[in-house]
Amino acid sequence: MNLLIGIMIPFVGTALGSACVFFLKHEMKPLLQKILLGFASGVMVAASVWSLLIPAMNMSEEMGKLAFIPAAVGLLLGMAFLLLMDRVIPHLHLGSDEPEGAHSSLSKSMMLIFAVTLHNFPEGMAVGVVFAGMLEGSAGITLAGAFALAIGIAIQNFPEGAIISMPLKGTGISRGKAFLYGAASGIVEPLGALLTIWLASYIEPVLPYLLAFAAGAMLYVVVEELIPEASEGEHSNIATVGFAIGFVLMMILDVALG
């Protein structure tokens, strides 16, 4: 039961954020979007370090001075995987008119959804692999630590859900459909978590690599998407403030609950 609740928490954060479309009349102001994007970046970077990379190296202590290898290899593979997905899956970033990925005749709203879905998947993997490490027992990951990561990602998913559902309403889609599309973008998180837990249960020695893989995938999203979007235009320094708040909050959650 704890496992099921844990992997569903990030999806709930996305769904609640998407529900803002029912309560807000207009799209979020750019200033607020910037601080929320910065906040999401801070949470993801802190989670990558404390919840994923450090446990990956701790699990590899028997390798001595080479304990960094699983973390380094996994991180690079995670980044390479997201780079490939970025090139293959058609998607459109918020505030951009130029779609990326393979050529497609999909609507603008669908490509916006794909853009969010693309970086929700590694977040689901991150939650899944941490719960897999908790179940395995040798990673030094506690149930509270696993829930800390799930809660941290859910917190940053809340503004993400709002950031995707509000522009969808602006394209002419009804509030109900905008909510459903925004929430649906987060369904890949529990699916990614379940897939990762299943893989870890069959290939136990690969767990440190999976931890680092999820970290690399999340860091790719931060560097490729969130930070550039948060730094565009005026008042980009407010995104830095958001980053600091998100980073510190996730660090506190991981250390205090872990």
Short description, anyone?
The protein contains nine helices and no strands. It has 258 residues and is mainly α.
Please, could you describe this protein's structure?
This protein is mostly helical and 258 residues long. The protein has one domain (2-21, 33-95, 107-257). The chain is 76% helix and 0% strand. The protein has helices at residues 2-18, 30-59, 68-88, 108-136, 143-170, 175-184, 188-202, 207-231, 237-257. The relative contact order is 0.25. The mean pLDDT is 82.
For this entry, give a set of tags:
9 helices; mainly alpha; 0% strand; 258 residues
Secondary structure elements and their pairing?
Elements: H1 2-18, H2 30-59, H3 68-88, H4 108-136, H5 143-170, H6 175-184, H7 188-202, H8 207-231, H9 237-257
Radius of gyration: 18 Å
* Domain module tally: 1
Mean pLDDT: 82
- Overall shape: it is globular
| Main sheet makeup | none
* Strands, count: 0
Helix content: over 70%
- The H/E string reads HHHHHHHHH
